Each structure stands twice: as structure tokens, then as C-alpha cells.
Amino acid sequence: MLAAALFIIIFSKVPSDKFASGSVFRSGLIGVVGVFGISWMTGTFFDAYRPLFEELFKHMVESWPMLFGLILFCFSAVIFSPSATVAALMPLGAAMGIPPALLVAMYPATCGDFIVPGAGQIGCVAFDRTGTTRLGKYVINHSYLRPGFVMVISAVIAGYFISQIVF
């Protein structure tokens, strides 16, 4: 985004003070800082408590490895970041002995950030002029729940079958 902004400023000769004062630039910059902040906080937290999490999850995952996918999904829903979920939990899954093929198959489970409406969902609702996309009266009843669950469940199932063929 910042590289595109640089090219727009250079080639279109837009004054940089006008560009930086725009609402889209400010929103994008806040989003970048927010994502890096969540990732940094998550990394620090998991580095400090990694032995505790390994001990807690190891027995559960040994008996049923697909439970780790549910852990990935729930964690992603809490921190709103699939990439931070991958960075924090996938090494933990590998350390607990989950086969790499299964970890690859469970990768789509890190996309649980749609549960609580975030910036993407709120922006889409604001842009929708037809009124078909909406947020419900409660926090987690919105237009993205069913499609999100279908996507995550079907992607994990497809990932499992693909990983069995490839690995």
C-alpha cells in the first residue's frame, strides 16, 4: 500500500501533504500499526508461556490431532489475525509432534477472524447499498458467519485430502 502511494505521488505529482491528510491513508496506516501490534503482542505472550501451552495442549493433541485445528480457529477469532495465529501456534504444533501434512491441512483453520466483525466486515456493510449485508443485533450474528464456516470447514477437508496425496 505504501509503495503504491509512493508511485502515485511520484507519477501523478500529488502534493504529499494532501496525500497524507486523506482518510484512506490514515485508515491504512492505522491498520498496518494495528496488525504489527497484535503480532508483536502475540509473539511476546507465546514466547513467555510456550512451555505451559505445550504441556496443556500436548495430551489433547496426542489423542486427537485434529483438535489442534479447533485451537487454531479459536485463537484466530480472538486475535483477529491469521498470520499471527500461524506464527504463534504452528511452531507449537510442530513441537508437539503433529505431522507436517496435517499442519498444512489445518492451515485454513487460522481464518477464524470473521467471527467477531472487524474492519473488513464493517467496511463491506457500509459499502453495501442494497442492505443485504448487515450486522445483526448481537455481535456475532452477521452475514459472514455461514459463508465463513463453510469456507473454513471445506478448506480444511480439502486440505486434508490434498495433503494425503502430496505427502
Which properties best describe this structure?
8 helices, mainly alpha, 167 residues, 72% helix
**Overall strand count:** 0
The largest sheet, given as strand count, sense and whether it forms a barrel, is: none
- Class inferred from helices and paired strands: mainly alpha
| Rounded Rg | 20 Å
Low-confidence stretches: none
In quaternary terms, these chains amount to single chain
Instruction: Based on Cα principal axes, name the global outline.
Output: globular
Order of helices and strands: HHHHHHHH
Mean pLDDT metric: 79
Distance between the termini: 36 Å
Question: How many distinct helices?
Answer: 8
Strand content: under 5%
Helix content: over 70%
SSE topology sketch:
Layout: H1 2-12, H2 16-20, H3 23-63, H4 67-79, H5 82-95, H6 100-105, H7 119-127, H8 145-166
Task: Please describe what this structure looks like.
This protein has eight helices and no strands. With 167 residues, it is an all-alpha fold. The model has no long low-confidence stretch (mean pLDDT 79). Helix 4 packs antiparallel against helix 5 (82-95). The protein starts with a helix and ends with a helix. It has helices at 2-12, 16-20, 23-63, 67-79, 82-95, 100-105, 119-127, 145-166.
